[in-house]
Amino acid sequence: MMPGHTPPRVLLGDITALERELETGIAEIRARQPLVPVTILIENTMLRDYLRQRLAFSASGHINLKIVTPGRFADQFTRPMLARTRRPMPQYGDRILARSVAESGAGDYFSPVAYSNGFAETLRGLIREFHTSGIDPSSLAGVIDQSGPSETSKLADIASLYRRFEERRTSFFTPDDIVAAIDQVDLEMIRQRTTSPVFIYGIWNPTGIQLRLFEHLMRAGIELRVLLPETGTDVDEAHATFREWLNDFDAEIEHVASDGDPGSALNHLQRTLFTEPEAAAPENTRVRLLSAPDAPREVREAARTCLMWVAEGIPFHQMAVVYRHNEPYRTLIDQIFQRAGIVTYLHSGRPLITEPVGQRLSAILSLIDADLPRSTVMEFITETILPDETRQKYDDEQRPIQPAVWDQITREAGIVQGLDQWTHRLDLLKTSKQEFQDPDAELSEDDPLKQELEEIERLRQFITDFAGMLEKMPEEATWTRHLDALRSLATSYIDGVGVHLEELKTLESLEEIEPRVSFERFRETVRHWLLRKNSMGDSGDDENGLPRGQFGRSGVNVFDIGSLRHVRFDAVIMLGAAERQFPPPPRQDPLLLDRERSNLNQLGNWHLPLRSRRAEEESMTFAMAVSSARERLQISFPRSEAGSTRSYLPSHFFRAAASALAGRNVDAGEIDSLDPALFTRVPAGSFRPPENTIPLDAHEYDRILLERDPALGVEVVGAHRPGIPRGKLAEGSRRSRELTVFDGNLDPESARQIGWTAGRGRRAISPSRLETFATCPFRFFLRYVLRLEQVEEPEALERIDAMHRGSLIHEILERFLADLRERRERPSASLRSRHLPRLNEIARECCERMESTGLVGYPVLWEYDQIAIFEDLEEWYDREAADLDNTDLQPETFELRFGWARRKGEGGEGSRDEPYTLRFPAGELSFQGRVDRVDVRPDRSAFRVIDYKTGRAGYYRPNTFGGGRSLQLPIYLMATSDLLGIDWQTSSAQYSFPTRRGEFQRVVMQGEWLKENQKELVELLSGISQGIEHGIFPQVPKIGYSDNCRFCDFKELCPANVGTLAQRKRTDQSVFWLRQVIEADQ
Question: Which helix (H) or strand (E) holds 543?
Answer without folding.
Answer: none
